[in-house]
Amino acid sequence: MILLVVFVLKKQSRQFKLTYKIKNYLNSLFSLQRRGIKLGLEHTKNLLKFFDNPHEKFLTIHVAGTNGKGSTCAYIERILRESGYKVGIYTSPHLFNFNERIRVDGLPISDQEIVSFLDNTFKEINKIGSTFFEVTTVMAFDYFSKKKVDIAVVETGLGGRLDATNVISPVISVITSISMDHTEILGDSIEQIAKEKSGIIKEKTPLFVYQQESNILDVFQKKAITHNAEIKISKIPKNISINSEGTQFTYKNQDYTIPLFGSHQARNAALAIDVVNQFDPKIKYDIIYKSLGRVFWPGRMQKIGQRIFYDVSHNEKGMEKTLQTLKELYPGKDIYGLLSLKKDKELTSLKTLIIQNFKTLFISEDQMGLLLKSSILKKELDGINIKCNQVSSIKNGSEILKNIVKNNSSIGLIFGSHYIAEEVFQAFEIPFDNYYI
Predict the structure, then answer these.
(1) Are residues 248 and 386 in the same domain?
(2) Does residue 93 have a cis bond before it (omega within 30 degrees)?
C-alpha cells in the first residue's frame, strides 16, 4: 500500500513538473509571434539543418490556397490514414490547444514531445532569429521524422512562395480556391495573390488545382509550364445537396456524403479525391467513401446548437460561401449573427454581406484580448442599415442567440475568428477531446 502511494505521488509530481514546463515553453514559443511574419526560407532551412533536415525523411503533399486548404488537408489525411498509411498532418491555426497543429494518425503531438523538442533549442532559435511559425514548422517535421510517418499532409501558413513550409519537395502540390486576403503581404490584386500561392509548384511535380476564374488559372498554368509540372484541374461535383446531416454529391459517377456543409466543401472533397487517386491509384471507392464520412474539421460551418453554427471565416469569399450554405439549408429564415474580428480592415470587405444578410448583429471581443475591441467594431458598423448591439462576452452573445433562435425559428451564426473557438465550445458545452481520431 505504501509503495502504491509513493508511486502515485511520484507520478503526480512528474505530471505537475511537465504541466509547469509545457506552460512556460508554450508561453516562450508564443512570444516569438512578436517577431512577426518573416517571409523567406533561410531561417527555416537553418533550423532544419540544426535538426539534421528531418523534412527529407518522409513524403509530403503540400497544400496552399486562401479558403479550403485546411479542410482539403483533412480530407486527404483521413483517406490516406484509412487506407493504411501512417500519416502526419500539419495545419494552422489551432482552435483550442497548440498541439492540434501537429498530428500523426489523428493524435496530436504530446506535451512531452513539445518539451523534448524545445529543450536546449531556444538558444539556436534566438541565434537564428526564428519566428513562431518557423519554429512550429520545424517542430512538425522533426516529429513526423521521429514517428516515421509514410507521408505528411502540409498546409501552408501564409502565401506559398516564401512560406516556411515551402522547404519541402512534395510528391504532389495542391492549390485550393484563391481570393483577396492578407493583401498587405501577398499583394493587392487576385493575380498577385495567385502568384504567391503558385510558389509551391515544384519541378516535375503534379499540381492539382481548384476550378476557378481563368485569370487565376492562367497564373498557375504559366508557373507549372516553367517547372515542367503537369497541372490537373479538378472538376466541379454534380448533384450537390445539403441537409441537416451534411453534404451529398456525385463525383466521376460515384456518390459521396461528407459531414461538412456546403457546395464548396463538396469541391474541396473532390479535389482531395483526385489527389489521393494520384498518390495511390489502388485506393478503392469504399475506403474513400467511408473516410470522407468520418472527417471532422471544427469551426468550419460547424453546427453547434439548434439552428446555430460557428464558422471561422473572416474574408469576403469565405463568408459568401457560409451564408449561401445557410440559405440553402434554411430558405427564407432570418439570420442573427455574433461577430468577433481581428482586424478592422477585414470588416470593410464584410460590410456589404452583413448589410444584405443579417437581421441583427451582436458584437463581442474575446477574453484573451487578441481581437478588436467591441467598441471599435461598433463604431465601424454604426450607420449601416441593420441593428448592431455590443455584448459583454461570447458567452453572453451565445445565450442571446440561443434564446432568439428558440423563440422565432431563425438562424444563428457565430463568425469571424479562430480565437473565440474555446469560448464558443464552452458556451455550448461541446467537448473537444479526440475529435480528430
Answers:
(1) no
(2) yes
Count other C-beta atoms under 10 Å from residue 194's C-beta: 27
Q: Kindly report the CATH number assigned to the domain that includes residue 264.
A: 3.40.1190.10
pLDDT tier at 7 (50, 70, 90 boundaries)?
very low
CATH number of the domain enclosing 379: 3.90.190.20
Q: Express each pLDDT in 221-248 by its tens digit.
A: 999 999 999 999 999 999 999 998 899 9
pLDDT at 12: 47
**What is the pLDDT at residue 362?**
95
State how many domains the chain has. 2
CA distance 175 to 199: 10
| Alpha carbons within 13 A on the beta-carbon side of 100 | 18
Domain boundary residue, one of 263, 293, 323: 293
Determine contact, residues 68/176, Cβ cutoff 8 Å: yes
Query: What's the mean pLDDT in 58-68?
Result: 95
Residues 195 and 306 both lie in one domain: no
Nearest in space to 413 (alpha carbons), one of 377, 365, 374, 360: 360
- Of 314, 38, 317, nearest in space to 159 by CA: 38
Give yes or no: residues 86 and 209 share one domain: yes
Burial class, 13, CB count within 10 angstroms (exposed 0-12 / middle 13-18 / buried 19+):
exposed
Give the model confidence (pLDDT) of 347-379 as tens digits: 777 888 988 999 999 999 998 888 888 888 888
What residue type is assigned to position 404 of the chain?
I
Show the domain range for 354: 302-427
182 vs 174: CA distance, rounded Å = 20
Residues 6 or more apart in contact with residue 332 via CB below 8 angstroms: none
Whether 47 and 135 have beta carbons less than 8 Å apart is answered as yes
